[in-house]
Amino acid sequence: MNGLLKRGLALLFLTLVTLPCAMAQPPGAPVRLATAETQSIAPGSRVSGTVVSREDVTLSTEVEGRLIRVAEPGTRFARDDIVAQIEDVALRLREEELVSEVRRAEARRIYLDAELLRRERIGERGHVSLADVEQIRSERDVALGDKAVAESRLAQVRHQIERAQVRAPFDGIVAERLARSGERVAVGTPVVRMLDPDDVEIVARAPLGYYRYQSPGDRLYFTADGRELGAQLRTVVVVGSEFSHVFELRLDPEDALPVGQTVRLRIPTANAQPVLTVPRDALVLRSDGISVFVVDQDNVAHQRRVTTGTGSGELIEIRGPVEAGDRVVIRGAERLREGQPVRVLDNGEAGPGSP
Length: 355
Fold this sequence. Notes:
Elements: H1 2-24, E1 29-35, E2 37-41, E3 44-53, E4 56-60, E5 65-70, E6 76-77, E7 82-86, H2 89-124, H3 130-163, E8 165-167, E9 172-177, E10 184-185, E11 190-195, E12 200-207, E13 219-224, E14 227-238, E15 246-253, E16 262-268, E17 273-279, E18 284-286, E19 289-295, E20 301-305, E21 307-312, E22 315-319, E23 327-331, E24 342-344
Parallel strand pairs: 1-24
Antiparallel strand pairs: 1-23, 2-17, 3-12, 3-16, 4-11, 5-7, 5-10, 6-9, 7-8, 9-11, 12-15, 13-14, 13-16, 14-15, 17-22, 18-19, 19-20, 19-23, 21-22
Helix pairs in contact: 2-3
């Protein structure tokens, strides 16, 4: 009897100790929910695209000479910075020569102006013939012409001296060096390739039959390095020919991407149709198929087998025993079982898997 009493007291004590702990733990697995909704989504196809710089140019020389400096690939420059320099010693010597010619022409003009004024005053008193006055005036006019020619040649040489410096047309980096210091180059020789890595776009080509389903301003999605990202369609360019029946899409990506990145762009291939969609996170992928967990009014999870269809960004079409307005699990569904109670987390609570 005493043994039974002791065991009963021990059981009572254990129950009283564990009861507060049990009451402190809310029942059910913690989950986050979203709502299944009807959305208009167009069927689509994947095409390849490439990230390119919108400012990508090859800089060439504008004067002949020997290269004395060329920027290294990867060097960043601001607009109007010098990226290559051609030796300009001969041009500067020619500049000094033409400066002297301009000064000489100006000095002769000054002398002939003064001489013409003197002859005209003497001619008023009848001591100089009219022919002498006209001769001096003609020489003065020739001197003016000589000065103008010398000044024009001087401006041309100074322009060549300025063109001996290859300058950056925009802020960017040197992507490729096409000539090296010490080489003698002619006019039009490519020297460097320069691009702006911060101003990029996506260029993709698609079959011409899908052209009518693309509209500038649409938001399209693409995958790059396993990430699903978005971009706005800026323009559509028809480049089809008898050999290549394609058109070109140019898009502005919403995220920073490196030049040369390959992407897989999803484009619509038909008009949009209303379909039932859920967030992609609601899909539970198991060996026996794809399913989602629907939570009823009593916060009990029910597994529904579904098949997937067209996707758009974070949403994907599903077909199965799910209706618009149903609450589906988007966090914590991996360990759920049919008929298991759940606890819906508030926005401020840590979700499943959070530290």
